[in-house]
Amino acid sequence: MNLSLPRGILGRATATLALALAMATGTTGLLSGTEAHALPVTEGSFGFGGDEGDYISGGRSYAYEASQDRMNVFGNTDNGVVTVSVDGANGDWWTLNLAAPSGETLAPGTYTGATRYPFNEGTEPGLSLSGNGRGCNQLTGAFTISAVEFGPQGYVKNLDATFVQHCEGGTPAARGEVHIENPAPPAELGLDLGIALDGTASSLNGKATFHGTVSCNKPVRVTVTGDVTQVKKRDLIRGSFSTSVSCTPGTPVAWTGTAVPTGSVPFQKGDVEVEGHATATDPDYDQPLTVGETVAVRLTRV
């Protein structure tokens, strides 16, 4: 851009403010679908340069390697967006967003007519390269995905892409490429909840005690909750319980929970309905998982 000094200063201040506001409101992350947990890049590189007058690059070239600079990547659960972040060993920091048009999966091909992510709409692809305190208020550009492979929960196994970005309608551009190769994605968390068909009703305090097991394929802390309903004559007796246990793969882990009746009528000998749930957070994808089971349990009086 061929700007006089006052307008240039204003443009830089405006772009910096826009970047700061975007980060403050989380718009440099994933807004479509569910955001995934950022994972380190095992093998990869990221680099870009720019024409003289390009605000983002300042006309310079930048290059980073996962072996010496910190690189993270994550998609979203719809596989429509990939975000790459770089924290350079020299103190640089950059974020690149590549997004398919709304409702589409990011796939190999060339995406033209890109506008600033996450404000792209409809059939517009989304693109945003920002960092080191610099960002575009408005941008146009294009990017080409040569290869991309997703795993569960927005895991990005590999990505090869090039991009071109113009700030504020200008002719100068930033041009770059990113290459990422990660290991095969970890398995998703698996949980299983078992509720025993026998329980007890206390004649002393009216509480009901239930038990069962949970199984898992990863070491996690599991919270087991249950809602209990019993009908006796004209009385509807309700209560709930909550407990947590540490689960390790290979062997079912026992749990015990005690439900307190919500009213003045105690739980009694006989059948109750238990609607149970087991919840844990997948340590690899930072996503919660809940499984449920509803059973009839026979209470004995103790």
Domain unit count: 2
Give me the count of strands: 19
Helix-strand string: HEEEEEEEEEEEEEEEEEEE
Which bin fits the share of residues in helices?
Answer: under 10%
Shape: elongated
Strand percentage, roughly?
over 45%
Describe this structure in words.
- A hairpin with a 6-residue loop joins strand 10 (156-167) and strand 11 (174-181).
- Mean pLDDT is 89; it is low at 1-32.
- The termini are far apart.
- The protein folds into 2 domains: 5-181, no CATH class; 191-301, Immunoglobulin-like (Sandwich), CATH 2.60.40.
- The radius of gyration is 27 Å and the shape is elongated.
- The longest helix is centred in the first third of the chain and has 20 residues, at 5-24.
- 7% of the residues lie in helices and 54% in strands.
- The chain has an 11-stranded mixed beta sheet with strand order 1-4-5-6-8-7-9-10-11-2-3, with no helix packed on it. A 7-stranded mixed β-barrel has the order 13-14-17-16-15-18-19.
- By secondary structure, the protein is mainly beta.
What would you say about this model in short?
This protein is mainly beta and 302 residues long. 7% of the residues lie in helices and 54% in strands.
